[in-house]
Amino acid sequence: MTPYSGLLFFYLMGLLLLPAVVLGLLEKPLKMYGLVFSILMLVLVFGENSQLPGLAAFFLWQAALCFGFRRCKQKPCPLVWLAVALAVFPLALTKVGEIWSAFALFRLLGVSYMTFRAVQVLLELYDGTLTELRPLEWSSFLLFFPSVPSGPIDRCRRFLGDLGRGPDRAEYIELLRRGVWKLFGGAFSAVVAGGLIWQYWLTPLPERGFAATLSYLYGYTLFLFFNFAGSSSMAIGTADLLGVRLPENFNQPFLSVDMKDFWARWHISLSTWLRDYVYTRFVRASLRGKWFKNPRAASYLGYLLNMLVMGAWHGLSPRYLAYGIYHGLLLCGNEWLDLHWKPFRKWKRGGWRQLVCVLVTFHLFAFGLLLFSGRIL
């Protein structure tokens, strides 16, 4: 059973969401039912895909790391990086198995999203920004079904705030209204628009030829947007019905005026997660340690590292790594232009020059998706 696809999935999910709607309208706590709903949906989806044992092993592994680390977080700094490395191990095993069948021992739907949530908790425990975490709260966060298959990647403290407060009746009616709209709109975007583009635009295209590749560039970009934005919208809508306000993942990305602006609008939860937990930490550590003579070098290398991690998060095949490096170089170029070419900043503020910036940004991203798709690698 594929999440957010097919009538059977939506029928079963709708039945399991009905008690949440009743509880919300009666102003009863949704905290425990959210976890019950997630477990039941995970059993249905992962059970049919024969991945329940893998999910159980992943859950127990991350629980041992989280609550074990919480007990001894005052120990020397290297301990946190050992914990992070161990938390990432199931994800790394999955990604290696995708390119080398001899290592294909562990496959798990949504492992990328769940791993980043687990790592976030470890880092926030280490930083002291997360001080109290009960097993049921952690389980609700890690296993929250709406965002397991394709995000968004929520933040633990924000998520727990929603769980602890709970909406009153008026707030829940508004969440219910928005949730239903998000579910129907997301289904239309992912299933109808995305499906039509794939079936009638991309599938008939020849595998070779400049014209076919150019057509594929536009078709695949639109397909990925409608499919991914639609999936995110359905996840947000489902969470709304459970009283949880997941963050938006897309904000009109094709109106971006440069690549920095683009990554503030596309897959927002992933790009901000990487910014906070990879880029910012790398730059701060390099500046404190005076690793480079030119402080600006830390920022450039931070962009490259940040986007390389983003590429590897999708997979370890050359096309994903090339996609990450490509975007890292684009962000470095964006930074250089902002710092050293004043007309670039003026161009982005309005008029026909801003339109040029929007068109160039769109095509830079669309070319990156050719790398991502594997069509030209």
Could you give a quick summary of the protein structure above?
This protein is mostly helical.
Number of domains: 2
Helix content: over 70%
Q: What's the β-strand tally?
A: 0
Task: Report the structural category.
Answer: mainly alpha
Summarize the biggest pleated sheet: none
Description of the molecule:
By secondary structure, this protein is mainly alpha-helical. The protein folds into two domains: 1-250, no CATH class; 253-373, no CATH class. The chain is built from 15 helices and no strands. Helix 11 runs antiparallel to helix 12 and helix 12 (295-314) runs antiparallel to helix 13. The model has no long low-confidence stretch (mean pLDDT 92).
Brief descriptors of the model:
single chain; 2 domains; 377 residues; mainly alpha
Give the topology, please.
Blueprint: H1 7-25, H2 31-48, H3 52-71, H4 78-99, H5 111-127, H6 135-142, H7 156-165, H8 169-202, H9 210-241, H10 259-263, H11 268-289, H12 295-314, H13 318-340, H14 342-347, H15 351-373
Helix pairs in contact: 1-2, 3-4, 3-5, 4-5, 8-9, 9-15, 11-12, 12-13, 13-15
